[in-house]
Design a protein that fits this description.
Blueprint: H1 2-23, H2 30-43, H3 45-60, H4 67-80, H5 90-105, H6 110-126, H7 135-148, H8 154-164, H9 174-186, H10 190-199, H11 204-213, H12 219-232, H13 240-251, H14 256-275, H15 279-284, H16 292-304, E1 320-322, E2 334-336, H17 341-367, H18 370-390, H19 395-407, H20 413-422, H21 431-446, E3 451-453, E4 459-461, H22 472-485, H23 491-508, H24 514-530, H25 544-556, H26 561-577, H27 583-595, H28 598-615, H29 617-622, H30 655-664, H31 679-692, H32 705-717, H33 725-741, H34 743-760, H35 772-794, H36 799-809, H37 827-839, H38 847-860, H39 870-885, H40 891-907, H41 917-926, H42 954-963, H43 966-970, H44 988-1003, H45 1015-1035
């Protein structure tokens, strides 16, 4: 009976295996084979599950994920979720099959776990709601998949998370959601993160995680995030800020697939479903007044996709309705309908798009011939005609439209600015049109700055206080329209200078109040920002020199701080237009930076940095006509010579010195200004730019660049600058690019290494220490800085300078005695600097000095030497013994230094040849180092009591002893070797002295720089001699 059952089980398993084999080939056979396997299950319900699992075992050993295995898994999961005719034990089979899969999911074989989790996930996704499975089994499935979600194999984690996704929506399974939220930030695999994002249910907890995934490094994870946002979150459920953030990231996505997914979300879910295809309605969900750039991007994207359909009569002219009959030769009055901000942005972007397309098609038509040229010309004509129908009929209508919105008050300021920008598409070639527009612009330039009363009844300017209209974008729009209307050479400057002359009259007469000063300076700033040279300003109503001496310099000394700030800003713009900076301008900017209030100092810092980058620091100092003796010393990176805010004279300070003092000054009373920048942010960023552009203005200041770089590195690694996150981010980008741009930058970095380490290490060079924990943290930060600088020095150069470096690296016999041209920029130069620093310490060192020297040696052993640098190699071998003696107590570090010495000896082409003092001095002078090589020099072997430092074998020594003269023996009166040949045993005193000498020699750490020829053989002989003598002593 048992044999018959076994045979029947085998036949049933073979039938199932045959069905599974057939479904691998095509999905078309699945429906027919599903009926066959359902019939088999109905015929043998008791034996079917075991036979089915047995037939499925080969799949658990098949690792490849090809199409045939995927079809098999699809068929198996579909069958497991299917119920046949009445009497079919589908529920019982599903429970038994799931139990089998859970057992396989815990197997040691990774393929078995992967296939089990894959089939479980497919079954859960396909399982109908009417299938009855016990709650205990589901609990087992959930617990097993939660364990597999932490599997070491990414594919197992992927399908385990997919299996749990259906249960995450259930409030009873709160632990699953918590598991997802815990795993997502920590997951390293991009595909697993993608499944996690797709599995998250829509909720306030998961939303922030999904938004963060739009910045994921993995493309599929970012695409999944936008897919989830489109399918699980409605437009109304998102805040305005989040809507703008999603579109800003998605439409500017570097991956075309992710950008397409974001566009699909915006088009299908937001535009079509929520806004009925109306782009203006979509803009109303985005708050274009706050997120103007996002609104522009949305409309531009829709225009390029052809999704903006302009209806007949939908133009700007619908906002300009005739209000009365026009008299002959007179103007017609209009009734202006005020438009919303979204409408203004929409029409501005549409008109700009049509204008660009018309110019592009026109250029294409001019560059081609025949039918193609005709097609392009027709497209250009169509765009121009459409643009003409949209824009106001005349310039007068346009001016009236803008004026009415300006008069409507500050609530329509944004719309008015959009309409000003819209004027760039109008034609002002006609004289009458230019006259109308010119009068309109004159009114805009003469319009005073808006102000209001605060709680104390004081007048306060609305806006930034130094731009026309109190807003940078408004001033830029007025300037662009003015340059469009007055396009002739010098005409723009003439018109604005006439306005400046009128506004400056009360300022020169000292009858103007602070509001009139600000208005005048705003117009001056608009002119200086939009002109290219003082040549265009000569011969008009007011001369540039008069502007400087009658407006800007007096304004910088005004009692009102806003006037001072606006004047200092204009002084900076004025200096950028000068061929050479003037003395008065430079002195005033320095004075405002040092003695002015905090808000004025930061504006002066920006101006000084801009002028230093534009003209060069040397030119700025020459303009001062003072004794420019630097107050920065070679190794000093701290300044206390100048106190900010007092009346002390600062003219003897060079500009870079002054800015460096400001970088370390305590600006506690300084409030953040626009763009959330502090003065340390401004100074640090500006000094970093000067270092990046150092090759453009070489001069005396290049000798100080390593000190400026040291300051920036110290500021970057300082533990007390956590509030300067913006500056740290800026410096991180700077440090990434700085060493790769030029060899000079690497020279500067190598020279800055030691000043940085001295300034950061506690207890060195007068640095404060503190508690044990504080000292430990400071040492850790200093060592991190040293590794960071080492990485920058080892960074490869860009193509331009790397070619030169490779040429210098070519082997040249002459290099053995002379340093290469780029020694200062390479690792060899840094190694010499560190070795000299270590060797310069005395034998008796404090705890801080010991830790400092040890940290330097840890960096020293990481440096590599080129074979071509023979002179530096010989010098390094000469200094290394004295450097290693400074860390003799550190056994591990001493071993590393010995290995370094061996490496240097291996690449030394002639170890016997010694480096002359002149050659060594030449290398040290090139690195600007001073070091006494003769003091305790170990170039030659130190004298020992024996006649020679390396003794031969005993037999050879005895043979030589008979041949040597007595005078040779008398040359070493303290020798432990007997003066006469020793045939028998030696005295107890001589044996003890020899043993003590050998023990002392073993405990003294010494690295021999230069060994005699055949050193390896002599070392073996010496070792043999010592052994022989010890044996002879033992035999006595």
């Amino acid at each position: 009976m048992a044999i018959g059952q076994l045979e029947g089980h085998r036949k049933l398993s073979a039938k199932i295996a045959a069905i599974l084999q057939e479904v691998r080939s095509s999905n078309a056979t699945h429906r027919r084979k599903l009926k066959e396997i359902l019939a088999l299950r109905l015929s043998s319900p008791a034996e079917f599950c075991g036979a089915f699992c047995q037939a499925l075992v080969p799949l658990f050993n098949f690792q490849r994920r090809n199409s045939s295995s995927q079809r098999t898994i699809k068929f198996v999961s579909t069958f497991a979720c299917s119920s046949g005719e009445k009497g079919d034990s589908a529920d019982e089979f599903l429970e038994n099959f799931l139990s089998f899969l859970l057992l396989a999911a815990t197997a040691a074989n990774k393929t078995a776990r992967f296939r089990a989790c894959q089939i479980v996930s497919e079954i859960i996704m396909r399982l109908p709601d009417d299938m009855e499975v016990s709650s205990e089994l589901w609990d087992e499935v959930i617990e097993c998949m939660k364990i597999r979600a932490g599997d070491k194999i990414p594919t197992v984690r992927t399908f385990a998370i997919r299996s749990l996704a259906r249960f995450a929506n259930d409030s009873e399974n709160r632990d699953i959601l918590e598991l997802f939220l815990e795993k997502l930030p920590l997951e390293q695999n991009g595909d697993v993160r993608k499944i996690l994002v797709l599995s998250l249910p829509p909720s306030s907890e998961t939303f922030s995680m999904i938004i963060d995934c739009t910045l994921d490094v993995n493309e599929s994870a970012r695409k999944a995030a936008y897919c989830v946002l489109a399918s699980k979150f409605s437009l109304q459920s998102l805040s305005i800020k989040l809507r703008a953030t999603i579109l800003q990231r998605g439409l500017a996505e570097r991956s075309a697939a992710v950008a397409k997914e974001c566009f699909r979300m915006m088009k299908d879910e937001w535009l079509e479903k929520c806004c009925n295809g109306n782009p203006i309605a979509l803009l109303k969900f985005l708050d274009v007044e706050t997120y103007e750039s996002v609104g522009e991007t949305v409309v531009s994207t829709l225009l390029k996709a052809g999704l903006v359909k302009l209806q007949d009569g939908q133009t700007l002219r619908e906002f300009i309705a005739p209000g009365g009959d026009s008299a002959e030769g007179g103007n017609c009055s209009h009734s202006i309908e005020l438009m919303d901000a979204e409408v203004a942005v929409f029409w501005r972007v549409v008109c700009r798009h049509l204008n660009i397309e018309a110019h592009k098609k026109g250029s294409d038509a001019a560059m081609t011939m025949g039918t193609e040229s005709t097609v392009y010309a027709e497209e250009a004509s169509h765009n121009n005609d459409l643009l003409d129908r949209i824009l106001p009929a005349s310039v007068s209508d346009y001016v009236e439209l803008v004026n009415d919105h300006i008069v409507a008050g500050p609530n329509y300021r944004f719309v008015s600015r959009q309409l000003l920008l819209l004027g760039m598409m109008l034609d002002f070639s006609d004289v009458s049109n230019r006259k109308v527009a010119s009068v309109f612009l004159q009114d805009l330039l003469h319009k005073a700055l808006d102000h209001e009363l605060d709680e104390s009844g004081n007048e306060v300017i609305i806006g930034d206080g130094f731009n026309l209209g109190g807003e940078k974008n408004w001033a830029a729009a007025v300037a662009e329209l003015c340059k469009k209307v007055h396009a002739a050479a010098g005409e723009f400057e003439e018109v604005v200078l006439n306005v400046v002359e009128e506004l400056a009259q009360p300022c020169r007469e000292r009858t103007a109040d602070w509001k009139q000063w600000l208005h005048c300076l705003a117009v001056v700033g608009l002119l200086l920002e939009n002109t290219t040279s003082f040549r265009h300003m000569q011969g008009y109503a007011i001369d540039p020199t008069e502007i400087l001496h009658s407006l800007l310099l007096p304004g910088a000394k005004h009692s009102n701080l806003d006037v001072q700030r606006a004047s200092v800003r204009c002084l900076g713009l004025f200096g950028l237009l000068e061929r050479k900076p003037s003395e008065d301008l430079g002195k005033q900017l320095r004075c405002s930076f040092v003695k002015g209030p905090s808000t004025v100092s930061i504006m002066a810092a920006k101006a000084l940095l801009d002028l230093a980058i534009w003209h060069g620091p040397d030119e700025m100092d020459k303009a001062m006509n003072c004794n420019l003796s630097s107050d920065i010393h070679d190794d000093d990176i701290s300044f206390t010579l100048l106190e900010f805010g007092d009346a002390r004279e600062d003219s003897n300070f060079e500009l870079l010195d002054l800015l460096c003092v400001g970088l370390e000054h305590d600006w506690d009373d300084l409030e953040e200004v626009e763009d959330h920048q502090s003065i340390q942010d401004v100074l640090g960023e500006g000094l970093a730019k000067i270092l990046l552009l150092s090759n453009k203005f070489p001069g005396s200041h290049t000798s100080k660049h390593h000190l400026i770089l040291a300051k920036l590195i110290r500021l970057y690694f300082s533990s007390d600058n956590e509030e300067f996150q913006r500056l740290k981010q800026c410096l991180s980008v700077f440090f990434e690019h700085y060493p790769s741009l030029s060899i000079n930058h690497k020279k500067c970095l190598s020279k800055a290494f030691m000043p940085v380490m001295r300034s950061l290490w506690p207890g060195i060079s007068g640095n404060a220490a503190g508690s044990t924990m504080m000292v430990s943290n400071m040492r850790k930060i200093a060592f991190q800085a040293s590794r960071f600088m080492l990485q920058m020095i080892q960074a490869p150069l860009l193509a331009k300078d790397s070619t030169i470096t490779e040429e210098n690296k070519s082997e040249n016999p002459g290099v053995e005695t002379c340093p290469s041209l780029d020694l200062k920029s390479e690792e060899e130069g840094l190694a010499v600097r560190i070795a000299v620093e270590v060797a310069s310490f005395n034998a008796k060192k404090t705890a801080a000095e010991k830790s400092y020297v040890a940290a330097l040696c840890k960096i020293l052993v990481l440096l590599q030497f080129r074979v071509s640098e023979q002179g530096v190699i010989k010098l390094m071998r000469r200094i290394l013994s004295r450097a290693s003696a400074a860390v003799a107590a550190e056994k591990d570090l001493t071993k590393e230094l010995m290995h370094m010495a061996e490496r240097l000896k291996a690449i030394d082409r002639n170890p016997v040849e010694q480096l002359s003092s002149e050659q060594a001095t030449q290398i040290l002078e090139k690195l600007e180092l001073t070091f006494n090589l003769e003091k305790d020099d170990s170039m030659e072997a130190a004298p020992t009591p024996a006649p020679q430092s390396i003794q031969p074998r005993p037999t050879r020594r005895r043979a030589r002893a008979h041949q040597d003269s007595s005078s040779d023996d008398e040359a070493s009166p303290t020798s432990v070797v007997p003066n006469t040949p020793v045939i028998g045993t030696r005295s107890q005193r001589a044996s003890k002295t020899a043993a003590m000498t050998k023990m002392a020699a073993k405990t003294t750490v010494k690295i021999d720089e230069y060994d005699d020829a055949g050193s390896e053989g002599d070392e073996d002989e010496a070792l043999a001699e010592v052994t022989t003598e010890d044996d002879s002593e033992a035999s006595v």
